[in-house]
Amino acid sequence: LVSGSRADQDHDAYMRQLSPVLERMAQVDSLYAIALKEGDEAQVERLDEHVKKIRQERQRLAKRFVEQQPSSPVAVYALVTSFGAAPDPDLLAAALAALAPEWQQVHDARYLREEILAPAEKLRVGNLAPPIRMSAGRSDLIYSPEIMGRYVLIDFWASWCGPCRLANRQFVPIYQEFAPLGFTILGISLDRDTMAWHKAAMQDGVTWFDLCDGKGFGTRPAKDYGVKAVPFNVLVDPDGRILARDLKGPALRRWLSRELTSGLDR
Predict the structure, then answer these.
(1) CA gyration radius for the chain?
(2) Is residue 73 within 8 Å of 7, Cβ to Cβ?
(3) How many domains does the chain have?
(4) CB 2 within 8 Å of CB 8
(5) Helix axes 41-68, 162-178, angle to 10 degrees
(6) Cis, bond preceding 101 (omega within 30 deg of 0)
(7) How far apart are CA 66 and CA 96, in angstroms?
(8) Looking at the domain assignment, is residue 25 inside a domain?
(9) CB atoms < 10 A from the CB of 135, how many?
(10) Does 127 reside within a domain?
């Protein structure tokens, strides 16, 4: 940015608004790392909720900036840096609509519209979950959640992701308890190293159906589901419709207890 330019001034103004949010996120990240290292699952769950709230606050701030400064050179930057992971589709759609016409078709705006917003719209609660398509040797595997007629947790993870490994260990007893009642997990590893994937799955006690094609975030399901960070999951009902997103172990257990104890008798 050129010192004293409009872009420089707008950037400084935006960062003054954003700095308190970033500071809170840094504090939570530090506490999260400690809780993860100590295996404090209750603290991890509490901090996850803080992360979600701070992330949404940042997205609301970016949207407000764009609405106030739709022609600013910093407008698209604010959106790209705020909506890259776990976007609120309503906030993002409104923010993109507020952009001045000259910024609507720049590369980053198109990226947000096509690679972030479009998948997020598909994953709204109540929508049919996209089918899972992955290469398996010389053939292609196509998995539609409704085929199983079960509650399915579609779980994206990776061996190098600490929170993912904790989630795996939380899911093991949940899977053992609820699998006989009509629940299963479809894991999709975003590892590029398939040996690391195998080792991690064994260490974590993964016994459910788990896939890895070694393409990382470039794998087809990650693109179809708009996955930009892990862990990420989607809970799907027996009809293939999305019930919830991004559930941690305790929240997943609550969902299944409610859905399966009432749903199996209908």
Answers:
(1) 20
(2) yes
(3) 2
(4) yes
(5) 120
(6) no
(7) 8
(8) yes
(9) 14
(10) no
